[in-house]
Amino acid sequence: MLKTLNSLTSLGVPITVTKTTDAKNNFAAQLKSATLTALNIFIPGVLATISVQTAPPAAFLGVPFTDKPERFKGWFKYSPVMGDSAEILIALMKRNGPTRDTVARAAMKIKNAVSNYTEFDMPLTYFSTTTVPDSIVILCVSSAGYNFSNLLNCAGKNNSTLWVDEL
After folding, report:
1. What pLDDT, in 10s, does the model give residues 16-57?
2. In sequence order, what are the residues at sequence separation of 6 or more whose Cβ sits closer than 8 angstroms to the Cβ of residue 96?
3. Residue 90: exposed, middle, or buried by beta-carbon count in 10 A (0-12, 13-18, 19+)?
4. Is the C-alpha dihedral spanning 87, 71, 75, 134 positive or negative?
5. Beta strands in the chain (DSSP E)
6. Whole-angstrom Cα distance, residue 155 to residue 31?
7. Alpha-carbon separation of residue 167 from 80, 132, 157 (angstroms)
8. Res 147: pLDDT
9. With b meaning 16 or more CB within 10 Å and e meaning fewer, what string describes 31-67?
10. pLDDT value of position 103
11. DSSP code of 144?
12. Rg of the chain over all Cα atoms, to the nearest angstrom
C-alpha cells in the first residue's frame, strides 16, 4: 500500500527511500531528501499511499479505504538539515464529484532533530461523523515543502532524513 518515488530512478531521480536496520523493531524506512542534479530538481524522501505520473510530473495520493480509525500510530526519528522539517500525515477522504472532501485528518510537522526513536500517537479529527470515507492518504515525508501537484516545485534541504517504523 505504501510506495515511494524510487520508481522514477529510470528518469535519473535519486533513490530517496531505503530499508534500514536502524530501526525500532527489525527494519525501518529511511527517507532522505536529495536533488536530481542534472535538472536541479529537489526530491523529498516520500513514503506514502502515492501513485506517480511522469508527464507532467505529478503525484496522486490515496488508496481505497472505508474504515474509520480513531488514531494513527508509529515510531520516528528525524535529522533535519538547516531548518528543514518533516511531516507525517493521515487523511480520510470522500469523493464529491470532481473534488475530494476531507472526512478526517491528523498531521505532525517535525521541526527539530529527534535522535532516538520516538512514538507518535495522533488522534484523527473527524469533520463529519456520518460520512464514510472512500480513500485514505498516508504521507511520511523527509522535507515538508512538498508539492505533489507539480513535483518540480518541491522545496527542502538535501540529506534531511526521516526514519519511520511500525506505522
Report:
1. 999 999 999 999 999 999 998 888 889 999 999 998 877 777
2. none
3. buried
4. negative
5. 17-20, 28-32, 34-36, 41-43, 46-48, 50-53, 58-61, 63-64, 71-79, 86-96, 99-110, 114-123, 125-126, 135-141, 161-165
6. 15
7. 21, 22, 25
8. 82
9. bbbbbbeeeebbbbbbbbbbebeeeebebebbeebee
10. 97
11. S
12. 16
Grid coordinates of 26:
527489525
Q: What nine digits make up the cell of 131?
A: 460520512
The tens digit of pLDDT for each residue in 69-81 reads 999 999 999 999 9
Q: Quick one: 126 exposed, middle or buried, by C-beta within 10 A (0-12, 13-18, 19+)?
A: middle
Q: How far is it, in rounded angstroms, from Cα 76 to Cα 134? A: 28
Q: Which pLDDT band holds residue 9 (cuts at 50, 70, 90)?
A: confident
Closest CA to 45 of 55, 33, 27, 36: 33
Q: How confident is the model at residue 101 (pLDDT cuts 50, 70, 90)?
A: very high
